[in-house]
Amino acid sequence: MKKLVFWCLAMLAGSAAQANMVLNPGFESDMDNWTTYLSPAGVGSVYFAVKNEAAHDGVLSMKVAARNGYGLIHQTVSVPAGSRLNMTFWALAVTGNWMMNEPGDIVDVNFKFMDANGTEISQPGFVAFDADPETDTPILTNPDWQQFSVDVDVPANAVSLMLKIRAVDGSVDGGTIDGTGVYIDDITLTSGPVPMLPIVEQTADLVNNTVNATLTWQAANIEGIALTDIVDQYVFMSSETDPNLYYIGATGDPGSDPASTFGPLTLEFDATYKWQVVDVLTGQEKTMVLNQSQPSSLDPNSIYGAVWTLESIASIPVVITSPAGGLISVGDDFTMEAEFQSPTAMTYKWYYSADNIYGEDVELSSTVDSITLTDATISSQGYYYCSAVNASATTVNTAMAYLEVGQIVLSYPMENSLLDVVGTNHATPSNTEALVYVPGVVGDYAVSFNGTTQFAVMPWVVYNSFTIEYWVKTTSVGGTGQWFNGIGLIDGEMSGTVNDFGTTVLSGKLAFGVGNPDTTIVSTAAINDDQWHHCVATRDHVTGEMAIYVDGEMENYLANGPAGTRKAANDLRIGKKRFGTGYLNGAIDAVRMYNYPMNELEVADLYYDYTGKKVCLTSARPANDLNDDCVINIVDFALIAEAWLESGMYQGR
After folding, report:
1. How far apart are the first and last CA of the chain?
2. Cis peptide leading into 264, omega within 30 of 0?
3. What CA–CA distance (Å, rounded) separates 624 from 250?
4. What is the DSSP string of 331-357?
5. Quick one: DSSP state of residue 404?
6. Is the Cβ–Cβ distance between 472 and 525 less than 8 Å?
7. String of b and e for 471-480 (b: at least 16 CB within 10 Å)?
8. Model pTM?
9. Does the first or last residue of the chain, that is N or C, have fewer Cβ atoms within 10 Å of its Cβ?
C-alpha cells in the first residue's frame, strides 16, 4: 500500500526553483485549461463542477461526485525527460468518508506519461492513494482539508503527462453534485527533486521509556542549482500534541554529498510526528529559534521538502510478517513463521482454528516465533496464527494462515446413483428427465446422457488449485475456439467474462478452460470415438498453470493461465454446459475432484491403477523418440529416414 504524506504548508508552489506546471490549479478560472470526459455509463451520474462552497485557498474548488459510471477531467503538460516530479493536491470530503483506489469507491488524482507520438508509456504514473485494504480505513474524513504528495521519476522517453481527476462508480457514498462528494483544490506539479528519500532509524530506550530516532534524507539536486549552493538544511518537526512544525536544528552545509543526517532525537512511544527539511541557498540564511521558528519564516525561494510522517515505535507488539499457509500432502512436514516488533521481550503462542475466527482455539506446543507441523494428516487442515505479548501485557495476533492438506474432496462412482462417497457433496439429476445408468468402465455402472435434455447438477467444491478426473465415452463433436463453444462434460461456464472454468468436448477433443480472461487448452488426442477415455484437468491457482491429460498422458500444458480463485456460481453441470445448451451424447463414469493439482507422475499412476497400463511421460521421453512411445527403435529410425528422404538433401544415383 502506498504511504500517505500529509502536508502542512502551502508555500511549495511559491518556490522560484519549482514553478507549478499545472494551469488553473485552484479552479479560480472555472474550468479553463481542463477537459471533461464522461463514459456513456457516466453521463448523468458522474459530476465535476467548480463550486464556491469550500476552498483550500482562494474562493473556488472542484467538486467531484459519482453514483455510477466513469468520468474524468484532465490536462496535458510538458515534462522534462529524466527529471523527478513532485505532485501535491488538497482534498476535503463533503460528507462521509473518502476512499481512494478501492473497488466501487474511487475518486483520485493521477497521471500517465506519454512519448513524442502521444503514446502512453508502459511505466505507470502515480495512481492515487490506497485506503487500508484490510480494514477499509478511509484516508480522508471531513471536516479538515488534507494535502497529499508523491514524487515520481519521469521516463527518459517521456515528453508530456496527462494529469487527471477521476471518479468511478459510487465514490463517496454515491453522491450527487449538490450532496456528498470530494473537493479537490490547489494541485501542484513541480520539477526537480526537493529533499527526498526519507529514512527514520529508531531504537527503544527502555531505561528512559523513550525512542531514539535518527533522520536521514537526500539534499535537493535541482537543475540550475548546484549542491554547493546549499549552505544549510533546516529541520522542522511537529510534536504529538501540536501539528505545527517548529525548528529543531540544522545540519549545516551538505558539501558535495547529498546524504544528510540529523539526530538522534528523543521521541515518545506510540506517537505520530511530522517532519520537514528546507534546503537554504546562499543569502537565504535566517536566525532560527529552537522549538519556535516555523518554515513560514524562511525565504520563499528556499527549497521546501515534503512534510513526511513518522510513526514512532509501538510499545505493544506490532506484527511485521504473518505466517503463510500452503498446500501439503498427508505425511508432509510444514513450517510457518511469524515476525513481530517490540521494544521489550515477547512470549509467543500458536493456535489452530477450525473456523477462521479468533476465540476458543486450540493452543499448540510452540512457544517461539515459528512452528513446524510434522506428519500432517487430514485433521491438520485449518487455520493457524501466532500471538505475542510483551511487557505492556497486550496480546497481538497475526493474520490467520490457511493450511490445506491435499486430498480427494468428492467422488461419484456412478453406481446407480449420484452420491458422493467421500463426503456429502452429492449431485442431483436435472428436473427435465431421469438419468439412465449403463455399463461403466470403473465398477458396474456409468451415467448416460441423451444429448438433448439430460444432465446432472453438482456442487462447485473446487475453485482454487484442483484436479478433476473422470471417464467419458461419447461421439459428440462440439464447436471450436474457447471451451464454452463445446459440449459440456463437467462445466461451470457463466455468461460474460467471469471467474469460471469448465471441461468440454471441443472439435472431438478434450478442452479445459478458465475464465477472466477466457483461456483454453485442448488435447491432441480425440476423445469422441465412442470408446472410454480417462480425462484429467489440473490447475494451480497461484501460478495459473493448467494441464490436461487423456488416458494418462499429458496432452497440453499452459504455464501462465489465469490465477486466483475461480468460483462464479454455487454449482457445476455434468453432461452439459452450465450456461446455454451443449448437451453431451454419451456416458460419464467415476468423477473425482481433488483440492490440489496432480503432477504428471500422479496422473499416470491413476491411469495405471485403473487399467494396469503404463504410459509414456512427457518429461521422461528420450530426445529421439519421434513417435512418443518412450522407446527408440526401428520405427523411430524409419521416421528419421523418411524425413531425410523428404528433406531434399538426398542425392540418388
Report:
1. 75
2. yes
3. 74
4. T--EEEE-EEE-SS--EEEEEEESSS-
5. E
6. no
7. bbbbebbbbe
8. 0.51
9. C
